[in-house]
Amino acid sequence: MTGWYHSWLAAIRIARRDAWRSKGRSLLVLSMIALPILGVSAVDVTLRSAELSVADRMDRRLGAADALLTDSGTGGAPIEQNPHLGTPGNDNWQPLGGWDAYHSKPSPEGRADLAKALPAGTKTLADTKGHTPLRTQHGLLQTEVRELKATDPLAKGLMVLGEGRFPEKADEIAATHHFLEAGGLSVGDKVTPRSLDTEFTIVGAYELPDELKLDQINALPGTFLGPLNKSLLGQGLSPTGGETSYLVGLGGGEGFTWNMVKEVNSKGVAVLSRAVALNPPADSEVPYYQHSASRDSSGGSAGALAAAATVVGLALLEICLLAGPAFAVGARRSRRQLGLVGANGGDRRHIRAIVLSGGLVIGVAAAVVGTVLGIALTLALQPVLEGYLGQRFGAFELRPLELFGIALLAVLTGLMAAIVPAVTASRQPVLASLTGRRGVRKANRVLPVVGLVAVALGAAIALYGAVASDSFLLVAGGSALAELGVVALTPVLVGLFGRLGGRLPLSPRLALRDAVRNRGRTAPAVAAVLAAVAGTVAVATYTASTDAKQRADYQEMLPYGVGSATADEAGGRDVNAMRSAVQANLPLDVLAEVQRIVVGDKKCTPYSDDAKCGQYEVQIPKANRCPLHEGGAAASDPRERFSVEERRALAEDWRCTMEFTGNAPGVGGVTVGDEKILKVLKITDPGVVNAVKQGRTVSFERAHFDKNNAGKVGIKVVTDHKKAEAALTAGKEAPGKVTYLPAHLAPESVKPYGIQLLVPPAAAKAAGFTTVPYGLVFSTSALPSTEQTQSLNGAFDKIGLTTTPYIESGYSGSTGIVLLALTVFAGLVTIGAAGIATGLAQADAEPDLKTLTAVGAPPRVRRALSGFQCGTVALMGVVLGSAAGVLPSIGLLLNQRRADASLRQESIDQGWGDGMSTTEIPIVIPWETLGALVIAVPVGAALLAALVTRSRGALARRAEA
Questions:
Q1: For the packed helices 490-497 and 506-517, what is the interaxial angle rounded to 10 degrees?
Q2: Alpha-carbon distance 259 to 146, whole Å?
Q3: pTM to 2 decimals?
Q4: What is the DSSP code (8-state) at residue 19?
Q5: Half-sphere exposure (CA, 13 Å, Cβ side) for 704?
Q6: Could you report the per-residue pLDDT of 674-700, keeping only the tens digit for each?
Q7: Nearest CA to 828 among 529, 542, 534, 540?
Q8: Torsions phi, psi of 960, nearest 5?
């Protein structure tokens, strides 16, 4: 035991001394290992610091209160809630009995009386939120208004004051830092709501720890939203609303218990309780879980862990393949020293220990450097990370065990990278090491067999997954196994490349011969390039194929270069300002105005549920409706009414294949406008154009026409919302008046871009409809630049519009950037691996280079030989990697085809298949990426190696006989 300890201690000392002597090589290997450790440790610290504890989360949501009571919107009807309310993904509740109980009847709606739900003897604080645009230095900014007495003890911790104070008077407000920055304002400035003449002074700036990017102002209760809503109603506009919740303090005890939560739930109120969050009840005590499948679960985590483990494993393999030759360089340059160890009684295990200690020393150093730098980087970038995430860290948290595990990966990587060089060095004869002779070592015959078996087995698994199974993991796993087999076969494949050397000039012939003769150092570098290129090519092929499918599936919302914009507030009061903004900022060709029908007050917005407002839609005769979608909520599932064969047949029925995709302005399927709209949308059919010019309505869907009303299309007007909703829930027709207009049917070849019914203004007026301005459609003489688009968006913002104009720019995939990034990544790995192999080759071939110099070879031969050595490794790696990467990607694409077809057929069989993409994912080979990898990268690597190689070396007597 003592001898083992001392031998390893001596080996580590020797390795540490060698690493210090060869600082450049040591720094290279350390960087390769430390960089991933730096990234992973930084991510770990960031995620753990950003992950809030339950107590921290409650402090940010509740302040100093014990609970928060919120109206569930069920009109006071009892509800069931998730006890983990306040946890991301669990802010949900449902009516008593679950949503399934309301398939055949309307679900309860309305406001609950929160005051009646408040427990007796508790301290409460109202928290009301609404939204309105405020005038700032740059125009109008949509802002959340929060009426809350921020100085109340219950509100402590909800808002963190950064400057000034919270409001104390009716005309004072505080604002978030993000609002001040976005609006160009500061403490002391005044702001005015759009529809209220009162000025409010900003007296303080604060932040919301969970929502750093939220534009919010804080006012005293009743001082902002009340007067604003009163002003809006006076102008005939809809109020901004205001949802009120109550912070509740119990003053000690057990807090707001689960029994109290259920009691309040019975009154239609949801509760976020600190006590329940910290000590949640058992699932058996939660009625919500009895009627809902929603639970806290780790489903999908196993697959995520498997994917993460695969990525980490491949990354470690890549680092080992890259770092292995570097350790071999050190072992080769230290062979005389290792030979002296053997000559003085050391056996093979001592030599292996010395080389392995080199990996251990570098691995430990990389672990320390990577971990420390990762922590320091996270700490230095904490404000940037918090800004990116949009929330403050709970605490700067370090998990020692996790960081130790990450650091251990660096040590393991260093040891794994040194294994092959250690074994190779230990097998060198002592005499050969002392004299500098290279010796002759027989090729390993087991590794190629193992590689061949792995390739065959992996290919079989991937083929089965591609053509006979829907499992993505089978294809990915088989491909990974086959790629590892190719890596194991690399020495044999390198030998096959040697047969091409006979017809090459001197320098490339010497480079290829040297690579083939010294496969121990060539194969790892080629394998590293192969692995990186194979992954790059596989991802690039899959990405290019997916992009081709998305391009084929892409549907233009408008013709290329055509835009649209709408403004439905206050009867279209902003349309004139919108027109001026478009004319001032865009290179216009044709501009057309669009109107909409309004039912009731002219200031009603579309789809308003106000009692004084109605709605309308294009009437589709019952005989023309898709049977799959009929029946209302009482029979909403097609599987309950049709057999599989009937569903498949209906999927091909023209009534079930109607699509109204587009961004042309319209409400209820009706667009009111003249022939300019046709010109903008590039609709040139003579029949359509003449009909609109003559004042006739044009329908772009044959389902609108009723055989009982030949040549006419109906528009149904609904004025009683409650009766309409009850009728639709029961599967009946909504009561309403239908007005029929003479109409022309457009040919199916005409693409209307979402317009179902185009009604000229004169026809709408003749039918008795009231219309108001609604928006614009416009064509441009040239696609607007980014600057022009930003300028237009800014003009819309100043008008006070919360929407931005849509301008069709055609399909724009991101694969170009992705493919470029992949190519650059593979190129860097290739050049790095080839450079390491070249450095090792130069260390090995120094006697040959000195001989060439001695016999009169010109200096350029040395540079040329170095360049060709590097280019040879790079070329072999990219050629093998390209072949190894294309085949797996094809398997994945075939598997994707099967999965898409299966999903499409399953949807059709269940009656929901209409509208699904029928485009089969193509197989697209990214030839530009392959060309850059196969040609540009090896040539670049060769030129770079030639440039950094010295032309002349020192003359020396050769030591070998």
A1: 150
A2: 30
A3: 0.65
A4: H
A5: 29
A6: 888 989 888 888 988 998 888 888 888
A7: 529
A8: -95, 150
